[in-house]
Amino acid sequence: MFSKSNDKNTTVKTMNKPAARPSNSAPSIIGSDVTIKGDITTAGEIQLDGTVEGDVRSTSLTIGEHGSVKGIVTAEDVVIKGSVTGQVNSRNIRLEKMAKVKGDLFHETLSVEAGAFIEGKLTHKSNVSQAKEESAKLSPTANSHQKPA
Questions:
Q1: What is the pTM of this model?
Q2: CB atoms within 10 A of CB 92
Q3: pLDDT in the model for residue 137
Q4: Would residue 38 count as lying in a domain?
Q5: Residue span of the structural domain in which 115 resides
Q6: Does residue 88 contact residue 110 with C-beta atoms inside 8 Å?
Q7: Could you report the per-residue pLDDT of 103-129, keeping only the tens digit for each?
Q8: Which helix (H) or strand (E) holds 112?
Q9: Structural domain includes residue 47
């Protein structure tokens, strides 16, 4: 994925489709002091304690208490302890007590702990990609829902 050119500058090769990742590989960890402006795509797992200003696509995503995403989140499994401003498309979504989500949630299963904040529309779908397509057709006005503290 990384290669060095002759002038000693590091070049990152981008891929349209992530390669299959071994099931026993370690998660990618984005530390609390890291800010990424751009999209992230991986076939593996991400532990996000920093900030991402862009879309995140992975198999599994855990957003730590101090982590945040401003963009679209797409993953099979998502655990949110921090904040998301944007749409979340996932088979399984778990919002923990410190979670703050401003955006629509498309899910098969949803778990919300007392204290979590949601401002957006909750849509149960058996096919998350269908939900994403339907969301694009809807008007930008969304219903607001809050989980009481």
A1: 0.72
A2: 15
A3: 56
A4: yes
A5: 27-137
A6: no
A7: 999 999 999 999 999 999 999 987 645
A8: strand 109-112
A9: yes
Kindly tell me the burial class for residue 50, based on how many C-beta atoms sit within 10 Å of its own C-beta (0-12, 13-18, 19 or more): buried
Tell me, what's the pLDDT at 26? 86
The answer to the question of residue 119 being in a domain is: yes
Q: Is 138 exposed, middle or buried (0-12, 13-18, 19+ CB in 10 A)?
A: exposed
Q: Out of 1-5, 62-66, 99-103, which region has the weakest mean confidence (pLDDT)?
A: 1-5
How many structural domains does the chain have?
Answer: 1
3: burial class by Cβ within 10 Å (0-12, 13-18, 19+)?
exposed
Strand order in the sheet with 100-102: 35-37, 51-53, 68-70, 83-85, 100-102, 117-119
Residue 1 Cα distances to 4, 13, 145, angstroms? 10, 6, 42
Residues in the chain, overall count: 149
Q: Which of these, 102, 60, 66, lies nearest to 79 by C-alpha position?
A: 60
Cα 2 to its chain centre, rounded Å, is 24
Higher pLDDT, 4 or 55: 55
Q: Cα separation of 20 and 97, whole Å?
A: 33
Residue 61 lies in a domain: yes
Residue labelled with tokens 């599994």 = 60
50 CA to centre of own chain: 12
Number of Cβ within 10 Å of residue 33's Cβ equals 8
